[in-house]
Structure formats: structure tokens, C-alpha cells
Design goal:
The protein is mainly beta. It contains 4 helices and 24 strands. It is globular.
Length: 299
């Protein structure tokens, strides 16, 4: 079975950004470089949904407006297409990223500002990448992939049913769990068949992914044949589907899930054990509440 780009295309981006020049890894925090909504206010933007999980919204970079952004909470740093870097006349510098199973050279730049709805963040370090492979898969132009280094200046929610991105106070639901912020990711604690794990909440992947080097003991139940995915650097890696009989997130029981175990670099220094897919849990809405350090969701 070969899965390829169609299912794991944004997972490949997410995994690539996990370790990028540790000296450039700030916490997700609100400061003078970001614009924050006033208390009680909320602004909604329409989104487009591709492959049932890829969220695309309109935004701007510098003096370029009506650009198309993929919203990926697992991407760090945010990524811009190389044609945008050329149009803005950005000065690029060399960098290195750790992919799932190797390191590759990349180009870095700093944007004057990025704006998505009411959120505006200045002096944003980004990776410069040819995003044509995403455009071909989604059959539409993609100018950037924005992560929490841009979006964490305010709480926000994604409603997959109504196709709206909502900035402002998160509507509380019966299902919620506290999260950690750092580097900048949202990380939650989960229990996978009595195995405690720390998972990064990722809107940019369609399945639950676990890193093999972080598993304290093997998962015994195979759930099918090995799949192959291709990362943004052109390399292939294998993902073994495994059945998790019982899954808990906070106090919420999520039931049985299929996870994909991927062989990763053992020395990559990730501080989480895998990627928690929002749509892989069949969630209709998810809220990132940075005031109370919680995510809440509705199925």
C-alpha cells in the first residue's frame, strides 16, 4: 500500500519543522509584535476545506494582499512559497531542518509582517520553500503555511462543519483538556492503551502519528500493511498502522483508534511523542484557548 502525498502531504511539512535552529525557537507568546483582540470580541473568517482536513484561509504578507494560507498548527516556523519571497525582495539565509529521518538544508527569511483576519505579527522568521507540490495536490494556489508562531497571538477556533475560522474567546464545550505551549506548539497528554504520551495537536495531518523512537514498548496490534509517504525533501519513509484499543484525552474516552508509527531520528530532541490529528479524531470543531491554556472540541 502506498499512501504518498495525498494523505500525508502536510504531515511531511510539520515533521520537517520540528527542529529548526534551536536558537530560533521562541515560546508561543503574546507580545508587542502581535495584535490581540479586545476581551469579549470575536471575528470570523470563511475557510475552504480540502481533503476534509486541510484548512485554507485568506491573509496578507507585507504589501501583498488576498494571499492563500494553509492553517497548520504543527508547522514551525511558518513557510512561504519562494515566489512570495522573490516578489517581496526578501534577503534569504541558509538554515537546516531535521526531517523525520534525516536533516536537509533550507532557506530562511524574515517577513515584515503577516496578517490573518485581526491577527498581525511583525518580523516573522519563516522558511522559504517551493510549495508547488501542495498546489498540485490541492489544485489551487498556496502562498504560505502558517503555524502558531503567527496564530497564537489570540485564541481561535476552527469549525469544520460551518467552515469558519473564529478569532476571540473560545466557546467552552463539555470536552476539553489543558495543554502545554512551547517551541511554539500545543502539546497535550493522552493515554493510549495505558501508555502515557505527549502529543502535539496538529491541524495539518489527517491521522494520529507516533514516533517509533519515543515508544516505551511496542504496540502489539497491527492494523494493516505498511504505508509509504514522501517528505518535502524528496525522501521516503514508512508508516506502520497500529490499532490502539483504548484512547483517552484528558478525561474524555475516544475509543479505539488507528495510529501510524513512523521511524524517526533518535537524536532529534523532540519533546513530544507524536502528532494528534484533529480530523483524525472526527472532530467537527476545535478551539485553542490561549487565555486558559486549554483546547476544547465538539464531535
Amino acid at each position: 500500500m502506498k499512501t504518498g502525498f495525498l494523505t500525508f502531504i502536510l504531515f511531511a511539512i510539520c515533521a520537517a519543522q520540528t527542529r529548526l535552529c534551536s536558537s530560533q525557537t521562541p515560546d508561543c507568546r503574546r507580545d508587542a509584535s502581535g495584535t490581540k483582540l479586545g476581551s469579549g470580541n470575536a471575528i470570523e473568517l470563511p475557510i475552504q476545506l480540502y481533503r476534509d482536513y486541510v484548512v485554507v484561509v485568506e491573509g496578507s504578507i507585507g504589501n501583498m494582499e488576498k494571499l492563500t494560507f494553509v492553517v497548520d498548527t504543527g508547522a514551525y516556523p511558518s513557510v512561504i512559497d519562494q515566489k512570495i519571497a522573490i516578489a517581496l525582495g526578501l534577503k534569504e539565509r541558509d538554515g537546516e531542518v531535521a526531517m523525520v529521518n534525516r536533516s536537509v538544508q533550507t532557506k530562511l527569511a524574515t517577513l515584515p509582517f503577516v496578517a490573518v483576519g485581526p491577527v498581525r505579527v511583525e518580523d516573522v522568521p519563516v522558511r522559504v520553500q517551493d510549495l508547488s507540490f501542495i498546489e498540485k495536490t490541492l489544485a489551487r494556489r498556496i502562498d504560505a503555511v502558517v503555524g502558531l508562531d503567527v496564530l497564537c497571538t489570540d485564541s481561535f477556533s476552527i469549525d469544520y462543519r460551518t467552515k469558519r475560522l473564529r478569532f476571540g474567546p473560545v466557546r467552552r464545550t463539555r470536552s476539553s483538556v489543558s495543554f502545554e505551549t512551547g517551541s511554539p506548539f500545543v502539546i497535550v497528554k493522552a493515554l493510549l492503551d495505558d501508555n502515557p504520551v505527549r502529543l502535539m495537536v496538529d491541524t495539518g495531518t489527517s491521522v494520529l502519528v507516533l514516533f517509533q523512537s519515543h515508544l516505551k514498548r511496542p504496540i502489539p496490534q497491527s492494523a494493516g500493511t505498511t504505508a509509504t509517504a514522501t517528505d518535502v525533501g524528496g525522501g521516503d519513509y514508512r508508516l506502520q498502522p497500529m490499532l490502539i484499543p483504548d484512547t483517552h484525552l484528558g478525561r474524555q474516552e475516544l475509543g479505539p483508534l488507528t495510529a501510524f508509527v513512523v521511524a524517526d531520528q533518535r537524536d532529534d530532541a523532540r519533546d513530544f511523542d507524536g502528532l494528534l490529528s484533529v480530523r483524525g479524531l472526527h472532530l467537527e470543531e476545535i478551539g485553542f484557548d490561549f487565555e486558559n491554556h486549554e483546547i476544547s472540541w465538539r464531535k
